[in-house]
Amino acid sequence: MTLACPPYFDATLRQLAVLYPWDDWDVKRAYRPADPAVHATLTPLPRRAQIGMTIAIGEWIVCRLDKVDPDSDPKDYIEAAWCGNIHTVYCPYVEFDDDDWRGPVRRPLQLVMAIINDAFYFEGVDPAENAAWMFRLAEHVLPRTDSLVAWRDAVVPRLARYFPTPVVDEFDFSYDWQESEPLVPREWFNPAFDAPSWDADVLARRFLAGVDFLDNPFARTPDEIRAAGLTGILMP
Predict the structure, then answer these.
(1) Which domain of life is it from (predicted)?
(2) What is the biggest distance separating any 2 CA atoms in the chain, rounded to whole angstroms?
């Protein structure tokens, strides 16, 4: 089953009319420069909080456009990405054929997936910048931004309160953020959900248990992970 839009998404943003300017030959104009305020506020946070914010902002874009383009791939990728923020092994690196994603609806959806994919896998990436790119893209695509901004202003302070800056020795080349930094499940991005009262492992396992891995082309299944001999991975 395709992932449902989050309850905080403003459904009035689902408009069939696509009125924003778009140029497939200059797509960077739609998401760069990165939003400086988003970048600055997310920079101190752990990596999973930064990537989670990138995914969560991307959901606003995918949900805004899901009535214009019914392709399930963007929502499937978002679902796989939430799994990947538990551990990247669940969401393998993917490349997208630009010819399949042309025009003012398809190309922004491709960018959502590409920006998240880069946040996981691009060498030397700054995931806070990816989130700031995604926010800029959302500002461009959404017909208005008041509910998006209100959501951001509710979510980011809570993340900052409960997920302090990780202490990392710059000379510790064995540091693995996936082993050392806390889980930040999808529920943390719902301002109405009392996420601090829940155990993160419980929320993460609950999310994984709700995923139909066999029906999601972007997700690696738990059985595939076990067959590969990978250990220490949170399972449903």
Answers:
(1) Bacteria
(2) 52
Domain that holds residue 178: 36-164+172-227
Q: How far is CA 195 from the centre of its chain?
A: 18
| C-alpha span between 150 and 148 (Å, rounded) | 6
> Residue 83 to residues 24, 144, 152, 211: CA-CA distances in angstroms?
30, 29, 22, 9
Q: How many CB atoms lie within 10 A of CB 145?
A: 18
Sequence-distant (≥ 6) Cβ neighbours of residue 114 within 8 angstroms: 96
Structure tokens at 171: 């000379």
* Angle, CA 83 vertex, CA 78 and CA 85 arms, to 5°: 95
Whether 31 is covered by a domain: the verdict is no
On whether residue 124 sits in a domain, the answer given is yes
What torsion do the CA atoms of 140, 141, 144, 146 make, to the nearest 10 degrees? -80
Q: pLDDT for 138-181, tens place per residue?
A: 999 999 999 999 999 999 999 999 999 888 777 777 778 888 99
19 within a domain of the structure (yes/no):
no
Instruction: Please indicate, yes or no, if residue 96 is contained in any of the structural domains.
Output: yes
- Burial (CB count <10 Å: 0-12, 13-18, 19+), residue 187: middle
How far apart are alpha carbons 55 and 119 in whole angstroms? 10
Which amino acid is located at 221 in the chain? T
